[in-house]
Amino acid sequence: MRILTVTHYMPPHLGGIEMVADALVRGLAARGHDTRWVASAVPARPGWDGSRLRVPAWNALEARAGLPYPLWAARGLRDLDRQVTLADVVHVHDCLYMGSAAAVASARRLGKPVLLTQHIGMVPYGPVLDRVERLAYATLGRAVLAGADKLVACAPHVPAFFAELGVARPFELIRNGIDAERFVGASRERRAALRARYDLADRAWSSSPGRLVAKKGSTRWPPSSGPSRPTRRGRSSSWPAMAPWRTCSTAPRARAGWASCRPPRCRSSTRSPT
Known about the structure:
By secondary structure, this protein is an alpha/beta fold. Helix content is 31%, strand content 19%.
């Protein structure tokens, strides 16, 4: 089956939708499907990278205001429409993005079935932007959802939010999975070795790697990302030392913070996969 995936970003851009879509695309390809993936060329260059197509986009909203909303160029919309023409089914991730709306519109015009996975509901940005976001969901979001043949939600609060906006269609709840080969429980010996390697105290330890954004509770975290701080009951915590959207966490420094790294460069070509 020829399956087209459409997202706002793709790796090396960091984000939850990007990682989930990447896992799904890889899994579908491993099962023998012909997969294509179209997203904005941020931060990589436009063009083909294997079966992945990065299209030109203006990303100033994210760069200047922290809003992950790329605006696709006309060329990108034409490229997307061409890929919808070739697909048997279109899998769109989230309803508000420009690429999502364009993909659903093209699929409706061409008679292609659409699966839409909605990962999130409201994301807090502040009083003014929150009103704009809710209005966008109540208008553009509802229209895009109405154009999909099947709706999937990744968490129970998502269909509940859209029900408040008058979306009566049911969502099928499919929670994000866990890569059981990458994320495994460590034995007592392995935990001891890791604590010794990173000079961690012999007590309960918690950390929170991720982007420093409000929806992840960053506004409730201590303001410092420096040395770890003791908490109640003999526990210690550390927080990621990274700027939102721009860096990633790899390995903890000794008893303090996290080491930051920039996403790897990605080379793209202008060739379409054969």
